[in-house]
Specification:
Layout (H helix, E strand, L loop, with lengths): L3 H10 L5 H18 L6 E5 L7 H13 L11 E6 L6 E8 L3 H11 L3 E2 L2 E2 L3 E3 L13 H18 L1 H7 L15 H12 L2 E5 L17 E10 L4 E8 L2 H11 L15 E4 L4
Antiparallel strand pairs: 1-3, 1-6, 2-3, 4-5, 7-9, 7-10, 8-9
């Protein structure tokens, strides 16, 4: 069934420079306001190709705005999740801000509506069941999928066997009842992310990287995916220090080791803390 928003958007596509368009835009704003005001809306999505944003980048939007206001500064609590694939750990171009109360979400939207991050105007997307059919991260699933990512990453951090033992196991709200609070888990996983990277297109013969890169302090590495027919590999690497992890990306991201087929033979490195 077509929602009000979809109907209005379809009308606007065929209308330009008329009063009808202005009316349609007004209705869209009203529709968004009704979604934001729904008590079940506790999450905002922010789409970005930049994987390096941190909690501080989103928190300072509030403090910067309040510095120019005469009202008493307020603290708005939220958790920030960097959306990553729970199996392969790749960044999915989206951040999720999770609030405990809808009123906190509305206050945050109000204060930050004209703000920018890295000179780009912020555009928030409230997430609610039935309102955002393009997102699979709705309701309680936000936290559940993030927790699955954390479980798999902690296993990979230990060793290859631990990772493959748990990676395809289901996780439900019931199974996480004894897990730590989300804020504690985020802090713990950040420390792990600083020392981890995933790498595309390493040469097939370099199954173990440690002998080839002895000048980096690599704890262990393993293939998360491989296809010999296509000469495709996707590796997880755990470093002993954050500095080695950063240097590895700096030196090898974009490096072509065989010019005969640069698309296949270009190494791509993604550090899990985005730096």
């Amino acid at each position: 069934m077509t929602s009000h928003k979809q109907l209005i958007e379809s009308v606007l596509k065929g209308v330009n420079g008329t009063n009808i368009r202005k009316v349609g835009e007004k209705l869209l704003k009203q529709e968004k306001a009704s979604v934001v005001g729904h008590p079940g809306v506790l999450a905002l999505a922010y789409d970005s190709y930049d994987p390096s944003l941190t909690y501080a980048d989103f928190a300072k939007l509030v403090t910067q705005r309040q510095m120019s206001m005469t009202s008493t500064p307020q603290t708005i609590k939220f958790d920030l999740l960097k959306r990553r694939d729970p199996k392969y750990f790749t960044f999915k171009d989206q951040y999720l801000l999770l609030f405990n109360r809808n009123i906190d979400l509305r206050d945050y939207l109000n204060i930050t509506k004209d703000s920018t991050i890295n000179r780009v105007r912020v555009r928030w997307r409230p997430l609610v069941e039935g309102k955002d059919e393009h997102s699979s991260y709705l309701g309680e699933r936000h936290e559940l999928i993030y927790r699955k990512y954390c479980r798999n990453l902690e296993a990979a951090y230990l060793d290859r066997k631990q990772y493959f033992d748990v990676v395809n196991k289901e996780m439900t709200q019931e199974t996480i009842s004894d897990e730590p609070q989300l804020s504690c888990l985020i802090e713990r996983i950040h420390e792990i992310e600083k020392k981890c990277a995933v790498v595309w297109n390493m040469p097939m013969e370099s199954k173990q990287l440690e002998p080839y890169f002895s000048f980096y302090d690599i704890v262990h590495s393993f293939d998360m995916y491989w296809n010999r027919d296509l000469s495709k590999t996707f590796k997880f690497i755990r470093f002993n220090t954050q500095e080695d992890c950063k240097q590895f990306k700096k030196n090898y991201h974009g490096y072509v080791y065989d010019e005969t087929n640069p698309d296949v033979n270009k190494i791509l490195v993604e550090t899990l803390n985005g730096m």
